[in-house]
Amino acid sequence: MGDISFEAKVLHTTFEKQDAYNALSMPVYNCAAYEFESAEAMEAAFCGRTMDYAYSRITNPTVQYFENRVRAVTEAMSVTALNSGMAAITHVLMTLGRAGANIVTSPHLFGNTVSLLKNTLSAFGLEVRFCNLTNMSEVLANVDHNTCAIFLEVITNPQLEVADLKALATIATECHIPLIADTTVVPFSVFRGQDFGINIEIISSTKYISGGATSLGGLILDHGTFDYSHSITLKKWYEEFGNKAFTARMRKEIHRNLGAYMTPQVAYMQTLGLETMQIRFERMASTCLELAGRLQTLDGIVSVNYTGLKDNPYYKLSTAQFGAYPSAMLTFDLSSREACFAFMNRLKLIRRATNLFDNKTLAIHPASTIFGTFTEEERQEMGISQQTIRLSVGLEAGDDLFNDIMQALF
Ligand SMILES: *Cc1c(COP(=O)(O)O)cnc(C)c1O
Description:
- By secondary structure, the chain is of the alpha/beta class.
- About 40% of the residues lie in helices and about 15% in strands.
- The strands form two sheets. The protein has a seven-stranded mixed sheet with strand order 1-7-6-5-4-2-3, with helices on both faces. The protein has a five-stranded mixed sheet with strand order 8-9-12-11-10.
- Pyridoxal-5'-phosphate binds near residues 84 and 185.
């Protein structure tokens, strides 16, 4: 298939093998194990000399089909599907890291990611250095020869901070450090991470891809663009696998040992979701931009944060990197925590729930929920305010959402 649209390509990726019954959609192969004709065939599969399936913790036809579809539309070198976004982040950092190494990142991260770094991985000797990733001299001051990754979220959730990806990629390349980005909030139908120097992308496919929040999932996209010849952790893998060193260690070691591969039922649902992702995104993101502008005019709202608004401090950078519709998530500030709780309690149409990019519009007060177990001091370091409401905009008409917000404010 040559020059066709994202929407067409994502629908028409063919199976690796013809289905025995000519099924038009990929069947769900709900099996743990696969049978072999002979001991020799079994040996060949287990030793990696053939691509035959051996066990569904390692590969499964339905999951692999989902991975192949993502690979076809993203042009990533390799794609791995796991059973949550958190599993994907864990796999990437455990593949690159080791005791004594450090990760340079921002304190403006998804709450569980902060906890994974600060509480879980640091207990294994991986140091975490939080700094301001929008300030390149701070980044340079924090990296050293033990830095195994610069890790960021392309639009931070819920602060909506945007770092200059090309500037970070320049530092990363010069210092021989892979640039790792969680790109969950901007779908790959409108943003190609490899064009901005990102070496590995992590996506929570629970969000845009699943299509109506049907299931949890995580994706790792390796663009195969990093030179691991200087990497202490991956040197051995580099010598055998070259630019596939990361994927080789991740798939052959970490992935097998952690056992968090996506399950076939979930891959089936997420493949269906993927087919309509761009159509849903267009609708959600254009409603989000329109709504952000309308909310700015309301008296009860102190401020509106959406990087697609012309008066947003990140507008130029955000538009250059992500286009006119940077995600379907916005935040706004009310006068106090009490005003936020009263607003949340008066909502009639918009649902009180966590999660992002469901078909339904969702509202949450991040300080008391996702960040509720951090101390007030930690929340301040992370840029989490008691006055902020986060909105994930769904498929309803803009007027329905505006009217519900209006009635909940007054
Ligand atoms: C939701 C989310 C995650 C975690 O993904 P799960 O699928 O819930 O494990 C990580 N990063 C970002 C930016 C997210 O929004």
